[in-house]
Design goal:
Blueprint (H helix, E strand, L loop, with lengths): L2 H6 L7 H8 L6 H24 L1 H10 L8 H29 L1 H20 L4 H29 L2 H28 L2 H8 L1 H11 L5 H6 L3 H12 L3 H16 L6 H9 L2 H19 L2 H6 L1 H9 L5 H25 L2 H27 L8 H17 L4 H5 L9 H29 L1 H23 L8 H10 L3 H7 L4
């Protein structure tokens, strides 16, 4: 009897055809199954990126539309910021819904809301309907924030997990590009309707996919858990060992306690509060680096950097392409270098590029440099886009699905992403006022100094998670550098 058959006998399945299909998982390459199901989450993240980027299309088109409607700067800032305001409310329910309905089903429900939000924007006849649609899509963006990384982190093998989690950030950047591309050639209403295709396709993929094995284990549905795990991961000895450890961990937690007491016990554990503090700071630093301000106000920013209104859409699309290329590079580098070195490198050079851009724009404003050179200003912005998207932009979303123990994933990821949503809203809503009061040079200086402070924090506290199982990461926070943590690392895949 071969090893695969021996392992599958543990599942207690009577249907021989089902056993045979599970046995064939190893030969069918689990990577392809994980990649296919992750594509469902990626398409929802496409929609999240489009939500962040579409305001850069809507605002200039509204301002240039003929008619009696004249919108103030304050109203236009709400068009950009409404979705980021709704993020917080999506974050609040995300953890509960993913624990109540499961990771897969939550994403299916989410996609329905996403589609409705895009259609409301597309068919809106006044700005107030548009704000409603922006709120719904922003709500979904916040809902997806903790949900996508947790789902992908639980279904993917340690060897591929970093790649797939980085793919979420790549999908967001691709969604920004697609919304800008649609809006460059189409009216904003048609562009919005096209954006509804992303969650529709994602919903179809997720509908035919198994649920997360970890969630099934937490619900004590062991048979379905094993079937799902073998479908996603295969039946190799290494994967079987990980499954056994996961089930053993859940077995220990079966003692009956009141929910509040269980929650209280969990939040006092170092494997909860240590990664929580790290992720909150990391997410806030990402927002204070100005990443989403660039997405939301790309056309206005390009007018300043170019020095006129010509070629702003071309510069915007070039920036989007550069962002996508940088994130593809990040996916590759994460497998070869790891999270920590990439975060430090990205933080240092993001700081330098922002401060240098700030100094250059200040010299132009003070007429020390007579005319702005698009080659220099756009070059510095290009460096900023590349280095920020190599690390500090994708890594928080990558790591939030890794660093929390299984029983606190929903709570920990929900709180972490809730904090970034607050920072997201704050930076996007205040950006027009900052540009007006302290200028573009002052705004970029503020973002650069904020990134510098965050990078110093990450240098001292951010751990490396590359190649470690979720259990080993939890043990790192639980035991620190104690001997038991060292022993667990001997089993690292």
């Amino acid at each position: 009897m071969d090893h695969g058959t021996a392992e599958l006998e543990k599942i207690n399945i009577s249907d021989e055809n089902e056993v045979k299909s599970l046995k064939d998982v190893d030969t069918n390459r689990p990577f392809r199954r994980q990649a296919f199901v992750s594509m469902g989450s990626f398409l929802l993240s496409f929609s999240a990126g489009a939500t962040a980027g579409i305001s850069a299309i809507i605002i200039p088109q509204l301002l240039h539309e003929e008619g009696r409607h004249k919108y103030s700067t304050e109203m236009m800032s709400w068009v950009a910021a409404m979705s980021s305001l709704a993020l917080l409310f999506g974050n609040m329910i995300s953890g509960y819904l993913m624990e109540r309905f499961g990771r897969r089903m939550s994403q299916i429900i989410l996609s329905m809301f996403y589609i409705s939000g895009w259609l409301i924007i597309g068919f809106s006849t006044n700005i107030y309907y548009m704000l409603v649609g922006r709120f719904i899509t922003g709500f979904c963006q916040g809902w997806l924030g903790p949900l996508g990384p947790v789902f992908i982190g639980e279904i993917s093998s340690p060897a591929y997990r970093g790649l797939f989690l980085a793919g979420l950030s790549l999908s967001i950047a691709s969604g920004v590009f697609m919304s800008h591309l649609f809006g460059t050639f189409l009216h904003w209403s048609h562009a919005s309707i096209l954006c509804a295709l992303f969650p529709l396709l994602g919903c179809v993929i997720l509908y035919f996919s198994p649920e997360s094995p970890s969630w099934l284990a937490s619900k004590n549905d062991i048979d379905k858990c094993k079937k799902s795990f073998y479908w996603y991961r295969g039946t190799s000895l290494v994967m079987q060992n990980e499954l056994d450890k996961m089930l053993a961990e859940y077995e220990k937690k079966k003692e009956v306690k009141p929910k509040w007491e269980t929650l209280k016990d969990n939040i006092q554990k170092p494997e909860f509060w240590k990664p929580l503090c790290i992720m909150i700071v990391f997410f806030i630093v990402t927002q204070l680096s100005g990443i989403n301000v660039i997405c939301a106000y790309t056309t206005d920013i390009m007018k300043v950097l170019i020095g006129n209104n010509k070629n702003t859409y071309t510069a915007m699309l070039a920036t989007d392409v550069l962002r996508v290329v940088a994130l593809i590079s990040a996916c590759i580098l994460l497998r070869r270098i790891g999270r920590r070195p990439l975060a430090i490198f990205s933080g240092v050079f993001t700081t330098l590029s922002l401060i240098t851009l700030s100094i250059y724009l200040y010299l132009v404003e003070k007429r020390i440099i007579r005319h702005i050179s698009p080659l220099i200003s756009l070059g510095l912005m290009a460096i900023y886009i590349v280095v920020s998207n190599l690390g500090i932009s994708p890594l928080p979303w990558n790591m939030v699905g890794e660093v929390f123990a299984s029983e606190t994933k929903g709570l920990g990821s929900g709180i972490s992403v809730m904090m970034t949503s607050m920072a997201f809203f704050g930076t996007v809503k205040t950006a027009p006022a900052m540009f007006h009061t302290i200028g573009h040079h002052g705004t970029y200086l503020f973002y650069g100094l904020s990134t510098l402070c965050g990078t110093v924090f990450l240098y001292f506290f951010l751990p490396e998670t590359r190649g470690k199982t979720l259990l080993q990461i939890a043990e790192h926070f639980r035991y620190g550098n104690k001997e038991k943590s060292k022993e667990s690392n001997n089993h690292c895949v």
